Amino acid sequence: MAKKRKKGSPDGPGDEYPAPYELWNFGYGKDFAFPAIRRWKTYLTVLTEFRVQSALESRRVSRRRAAEKLVWWVPTLWQPKSGLTFIPFVVKKPLHFDFDPKVLIGILQQILISIIGVILHLPRSLVAVDHSRFRVAFPIPDPAMHYELDPYKAPDDPKYSPEAPPVENGKHITVIAVIDDGLPFAHRNFRNAKGKTRVEYCWLQSVKIDEKQKTVLFGREYDRKDIDALIAKYANDEDQLYRAAGATRDVEDFGSLIDRHATHGAHVMDLATGYAPERGDTPREEIRIIAVQLPNTIAWDTSGFGKDMYMLSAFHYIFNRADIIAKKYGVSNLRLVINFSYGFSGGRHDGGLELEAAIDELVEKRRTRYNNPSPTALVVPAGNTFLERMHGMIAPTDGQKAIEVRWRIQPNDRTPSYLELWFGEEFDPTGYAVEVWDPWADRPRFTMSIEVDQNATYPGDPIKPGDIYEGDIAVIGQVTVDYHRRERWRVVVILAPTEPEDICHPHVPSGEWKILIKGGDLSQPITEPVHCWIQRSADPESLRSGSRQSYFDDLRDCRYTPGGDLSEVDTDEAFVRRFGSLNGIATGSTPLVVGGYRLGAGLGSTLASARPARYSSAGPLKPDWLQTAVDCSSMSDRSRALPGTVAAGVRSGSRSLLQGTSVAAPFVARQLAEAFATADDSTVWKAECENYLPLLSGYPPKNVKGDRQPRAAHDDLTKARLGKVRVPPHWQPGIEPYKRDRPG
């Protein structure tokens, strides 16, 4: 029997392998990938993770020579000397370079050696470069890149003029940051009572650069002075304002989101920190805004691939600019709330995904940094896949019984489909194999052993990729097995579209595909559940991707109640699981996870009657190796008959309607920011251990003994989806929070 590698062991195969999504999107499946990958090939984005080692562990690092000089850049970094182990960077792809995983790893290792010395100022001998990990993401379009900036150096911080603090009466300056798309930074709802903007900094990551402005590596940045000047000049014509600012010059193929009537980002930003004259709101001068607009590619490709460098760069930028604001206004321990209304359905769901770990690292270091710990809250949505049949669980088995997953692929789907199977940390892969059956085959289309031995495909690489062939020529899918971060074994199955945009490319047949996991005579029992997730394949911004969502086809799952309604409980013995469908980047240690509710009795009813929105995802009811749960909830639907919430459109005075847990999260971020602005230091520090959950007010009320709550409030299913606090959307008309003196 093969010896099982120990978690984190440095003597086995390393972690420096290209992940399954990179192998597919840059390799076998590049013909089906997002158009930007095919069109823009000059500047690749990368997220690297490296391990700091002791002097006794260090050894000589082999350098693989590239054909030409390597050029790389780092975006704005927050405190690069603070001991971070995740770094985002951009690399200029060498000429005549085609995607070869072995060559690419050598190139990126050379770049990491330079980053270690030039940016982090660490001795190379203390970093385990051979055990570094790289996640290659969407390229930066050429028109959006400041290639003329000094390589090997982060962009300079923007200049600022000192101003007097704008608050009094014991209030605290607080920053609320929004990471989203289509952000209307000049909207009147983000101005103070004097008509000046409260947006201190705004970074649009994917617009064409301004050659005179070089404070960000890609895209454009606007500071408060820039925005106020634009408002003064184009106050009555926001269309002209955004055109003059260059904000409409998106370099992707979808057109500018800022030119639309409504966007996800405009809606979320208004709910989080918009103060509207028509609602009778009084702007909060002490709450300032940092906004980061992600590329449209992030919304288009919902599989989770391609976002890592952009999103981690957004967090670095926010933390860096928050420090500048603190210095600008003479504030120590500046309080920061980040609303990140984004998610995907795949991933480990235990906080161990690279992006989750990187974000947790940043947030924890800002909360605990030496001599200047600063309150930092991160608010994320629970997800919207509760009823989508995209999560399944396989119970522990004796190792001899085959595990079967039935995967329904839809016709007319123009995007690839992704399935992930994650095993527990105690899983021993010896003797196990994976089989893939198409809807019409009488034998497996593909078979591959799960175990990866020392003779891996790539040097020091615990991944084994395999192809699914259509006939003897074209690749229509990919199967990979890897030992993710030396903690969990993962099988990823990727299938090409059933209707590719280019009819010359091969397609997969629609219908029920089967994935079988079979054990052999030497196979050990599977002692922990195996969790399976299908990546979300939806089109959140109507970007015409042509995607259709695949799902698990489980005849044992009762989808409807006896009355004909959609069932919101799991069926015993069924593979499909509604609970455990939580957002794939909401399972770290620092996020405050927000579910969505609807008002049970319509507008005017109390929060005591609120019920989970039927799509609002949740953690597991019976935790196994999945532990994360929903912390709190807010309104995502006004009632069952009135879906969604009402907030601002892109232009001042316009309205939009949007539903989902993404619009529940900003209500919580808003209340946290307002609590940060008024609470004393001891209250804030005390709440940090629970990610500031105790600062929220809503239902059930605090410090009320003997309170008679409705029976539903004690229901485990409701609590698992709504969390401990139901936060009221305080400015929505007709909504009343729970009152202790209400009759009954």
Strand content: 15-25%
Mean pLDDT equals 84
- Count of runs of 4 or more consecutive helical residues: 12
The major pleated sheet works out as: 10 strands, mixed
Low-confidence stretches: 1-15, 54-68, 454-461, 704-714, 739-744
Distance between the termini: 66 Å
Helix/strand/pairing class, anyone?
alpha+beta
Structural domain tally: 4
Task: Tell me the helix content.
Answer: 10-25%
* Overall form: globular
Keywords:
744 residues, alpha+beta, Jelly Rolls, 4 domains, six-stranded antiparallel beta sheet, disordered C terminus
Can you offer a commentary on this structure?
Strands 5, 6, 7, 8, 9, 10, 22, 23, 24 and 27 form a 10-stranded mixed β-sheet that branches. Strands 11-20-13-18-17-16 form a 6-stranded antiparallel β-sheet, with helices on one face. A 5-stranded antiparallel β-sheet has the order 15-14-19-12-21, with no helix packed on it. It is of the alpha+beta class and 744 residues long. It contains 12 helices and 27 strands. The chain folds into 4 domains: 20-144, no CATH class; 174-371, no CATH class; 391-552, Jelly Rolls (Sandwich); 592-642 and 654-727, no CATH class. It is globular.
Task: Summarize, please.
The protein has 744 residues and is of the alpha+beta class. The chain is built from 12 helices and 27 strands. The chain folds into 4 domains: 20-144, no CATH class; 174-371, no CATH class; 391-552, Jelly Rolls (Sandwich); 592-642 and 654-727, no CATH class.
